Amino acid sequence: MSSPTTKCPYPAGEYAPVAWPLSRRGDVVPAECGQLRAASPIARVKTLTGDDAWLVTSHALARQVLDDGTHFSLRETAAEGRPRQYALTIPPEAVNTMGNVNSAGLHQEVLRAFGPRSGPASAEWMRERAHELIDGMVAEGAPVDLRQRFAEPYAAVMVSEVLGLPHEDGCRLMAGLDLGFVTSPEAFDGCTANWDKDFAYVLRRVRGDHASRRGLIRRLCELRDDPDRDGADLTDEMIAAVVTSLFGAGAMSTYVFLLHAVLTLVRHPEAMERLRARPELMPRAVEELMRCTLSIGDGLPRIALADVRVGEVDVRAGELVLVCVEGANFDPEAFEDPERFDIDRSPNPHLSFGSGPHFCPASAISRVHAGEALTALLDRLPKLRLALPADQLVWRTGNIKRVPERLHVLW
C-alpha cells in the first residue's frame, strides 16, 4: 500500500503546529505522528537548534528518503554549516561510522561480525549469559531494576564479545554511554569527554599485543596489516573510531530495546502467556516489538544532496530531512490496525533498523539476542510485572533515545 500524497499545508516558511522533538515518553505513541501523517506526511518543523527541517511521518516517504543514497546523505549531517536537529556533541567521524566502513571496503566484515553464527555471541552463548543474569536477579530478590541488573550488562557483554573487548571493560564503557547520546541546542564544555575517553581506550586495544586481539578488532587489524591489501585507508584511528561507534550504537540500542520490549509485553499478558506456551513464536514477536516500541525519539537525519521531490514537496539541496520512525511504523497505509500489538503480524515492513545504505549492520544478531533474552525472562520469571504503575516511570530527557531511567520489576 502506498502513502497518500496529501499536499503539504505547511509550505516553506510555515511550520507544522508541533513541538519538536516529540514527547519523550516511550509508552505512548505521540498523537502528533498521526495528525501530521494525515494532514501533511512531509511538513516543516523547527529543530532544537532553531534550524529548518522537513519531518517525514509516512511509511512510503520514509522509505523513499532512507533508500535513496543518491539524493540523501547521513555523512553530510555532520558537515560544517549544515542545518542540524541538535548540536554536534560527538566527533563527526562517529556520525558516519558505516560510511567510513564502506569507504574502507569493510562492510562485509562488519556484517559478518554481527551476523548470527556458532561460537562467540551465538544464540547458545547469549542464552547462557541471559540465564546467568537472571540467576543474579533471583538471588537478589524482587524488586530489581531491570535496566541495571539485566538489560545493560546483557547488552555490554554481547557487544563486547562481538567486537573483541574484555567483558568487564564493556560494562565499564556502558557506565558513561548515555553521555554520548545527549541532545542539546548547542555544544557544551566537555560534551565529547566520554567519547574521547572511550576512543583512547579502544585505540590502546587496537595497538596492543597481537595475541590479545580478538573479535572484530582482530579482523580489522589483520586487514590493516595484510600486504596483499592496500591498507593505507585503514589506520589505527579509523579502526578505533569504528569500534567505539559500534559499541555505543550497539549497546545503547540493545539495552533500550529490551526495556521497551518488556514494558510492552507486561502490558499484554495474553501475549506473554502465548509466548511461554509457544516459544517458537518469539521471532515474530520480536519483529512486532521492534515495530511498535518507541525508542527512536528524534528522527533519522539526512541532508539533501540535490533538489528532490518527496511526496508533494520539493526538498532543496542542503536541506535537512528527519524521518520519524514512529510515524512510519504506525502508518495505517502500511500496517493494518497499527495500534494493535499483534505477534502474528505479517508482513511487517517496519523501519526500526532503518533502510537503504545505512540499514543497521547488527539487525541479524539483534533479532537473535532479543529473542534469547526475552525467552529466558518469560521462562524464568512467569509472573514478571512492573513494580509500579507505568505512568510513574521517569523518561529521560535530552537524549537521542526514549529510555526509562529505571524499570523496576517483580515476578
* Helicity level: 40-55%
Name the helix and strand elements from N-terminus to C-terminus, one letter apiece: HEEHEHHHHEHHHHHHHEEEEHHEE
Q: Strand share of the residues?
A: 5-15%
Calculate the terminal CA-CA distance, rounded to whole Å.
42 Å
- As for the number of domains, it is 1
CATH topology: Cytochrome p450
Strands of the biggest beta sheet: in what spatial order?
1-2-8-5-3
The CATH superfamily name is Cytochrome P450
Shape: globular
Total number of strands: 10
- The computed structural class is alpha+beta
Oligomeric state of the chains in view: single chain
InterPro entries: Cyt_P450, Cyt_P450_B, Cyt_P450_CS, Cyt_P450_sf
Protein name: Cytochrome P450
Pfam family, one: p450
GO molecular function: metal ion binding; monooxygenase activity
Write the layout of secondary structure elements.
Layout: H1 31-39, E1 42-46, E2 52-56, H2 59-67, E3 72-73, H3 92-95, H4 97-103, H5 107-113, H6 123-140, E4 144-145, H7 146-163, H8 167-175, H9 193-206, H10 215-225, H11 236-266, H12 269-277, H13 282-292, E5 300-304, E6 308-310, E7 313-315, E8 320-323, H14 325-329, H15 363-380, E9 385-386, E10 408-410
Parallel strand pairs: 2-8
Antiparallel strand pairs: 1-2, 3-5, 4-10, 5-8, 6-7, 9-10
Q: Could you walk me through the main structural features you see in this protein, from its secondary elements to its overall organization?
A:
- The protein starts with 30 loop residues before the first helix and ends with a strand.
- The protein is 44% helix and 8% strand.
- β6 (308-310) and β7 (313-315) form a beta hairpin.
- It has helices at 31-39, 59-67, 92-95, 97-103, 107-113, 123-140, 146-163, 167-175, 193-206, 215-225, 236-266, 269-277, 282-292, 325-329, 363-380; strands at 42-46, 52-56, 72-73, 144-145, 300-304, 308-310, 313-315, 320-323, 385-386, 408-410.
- It has one domain (31-410): Cytochrome P450 (Cytochrome p450, Orthogonal Bundle).
- By secondary structure, the protein is an alpha+beta fold.
- The chain contains 15 helices and ten strands.
